[in-house]
Amino acid sequence: MKGKLLLPVLLVLALVGVAYLLLPKGPHAFYGTRLLNPKPVDFTLEGPQGPVQLSQLKDKLVLIFFGFVHCPDVCPTTMLALKRAYEKLSPKEQERVQVIFISVDPERDTPQISDQYAKGFHPSFLGLTGSPETIQEVARTFGVYYQKTQYRGPGEYLVDHTATTFVVKEGNLVLLFSPDKVEETEKVVGDLRALL
Amino acid sequence: MRWLFLLLGSVALAQAVATPGWVRLVPPVVKDTAAYLTLENRGKLPLRLVGAETDVAERVSFHQDHREHRGGQVVLGMRPLPYLDIPPGGRVEFRPGKYHLMLEGLKRPLKAGEKVALVLRFQDGSRLKVILPVEMR
């Protein structure tokens, strides 16, 4: 009796296994915060070689982080998380992803300094900034808050800033990573691949 | 009696115990970086960390991360601390997102893998030397 049961049981198990593999994969469950209504965004900021317009990068998935260079704890933590995620992507995927660091401290950070900072994390990253007015406008577009604190004198202050990573696809803001979520490299990579 | 004083003396010296973390390797364009470690108070008295020095930076300050929510998003910053208290049996973790020792005004760009010596100063006059590796993390 025992021997007669084994074969059908195995067969059923095998069929269940095959059925599971054949199941259509549902839509990717995003780990980051998906925007229900993707928001069209654009800006022109200063890069190391002149102006850079976001819409020029329409064929790429653009990851944007706002920060400032004199920031040794918060900003590198996210920039290093973005580096880890970026380096997990294949070279083909990397070609279609652009990480941008935008300095909200244009008084101290020139486009060159911002870019050297970004490239210090990965040579393909891009650092941008702009006039205080332009930065204010871009920050408003993305809902970024920034404020000088602990002012000790010109050039000696700290900056509080929104530490979200913004993901832009084809000119639309589609996904956000909080500074805590961006640390989960595998899940961030999963989200980026689903968008690529 | 003398051995008792010696013993007490060594206990007092061993009050602060540091578990090394790392000094963050930042792009050379940045003149400030952060050092991370865990400081434990194994003594019976409260400890107050009042200062720190290193040869590689102009000065060392203590910062605590500051976090608030605005428009549904996390706004981060940091606030300097004049000193840091560690209760007996307590510990303070200097790590990303919590506390950091800011090495301000780096005298030269640091290199990955090099060791940086940091001397921590306490209010009771004791000092603690910590050696931290420079790492990009």
TrEMBL record, chain A:
Note the SS bond partners: C71-C75
List of residues binding Cu cation? C71, C75, H161
Identify the residues that the record assigns to the Thioredoxin domain, covering every copy. 34-194
What the entry lists under PANTHER family is as follows: ELECTRON TRANSPORT PROTIN SCO1/SENC FAMILY MEMBER, LINALOOL DEHYDRATASE_ISOMERASE DOMAIN-CONTAINING PROTEIN
Q: Which family does it belong to?
A: Belongs to the SCO1/2 family.
Gene3D superfamilies in alphabetical order: Glutaredoxin (3.40.30.10)
Q: Name one GO molecular function term.
A: metal ion binding
Which InterPro entries does this chain map to? SCO1/SenC, Thioredoxin-like_sf, Thioredoxin_domain
Q: Return the protein name.
A: SCO family protein
What keyword terms does UniProt attach to this protein? Copper, Disulfide bond, Metal-binding
* Higher taxonomy: Bacteria, Thermotogati, Deinococcota, Deinococci, Thermales
UniProtKB/TrEMBL annotation, chain B:
Q: Where is the signal peptide?
A: 1-18
- Give the organism the record lists: Thermus brevis
- The molecule here is called Copper chaperone PCu(A)C
* Key words of the record: Signal
Amino-acid biosynthesis keyword on record: no
**InterPro entries xref list:** LpqE-like, Lxx211020-like, PCuAC_sf
**Does the record carry Lipoprotein as a key word?**
no
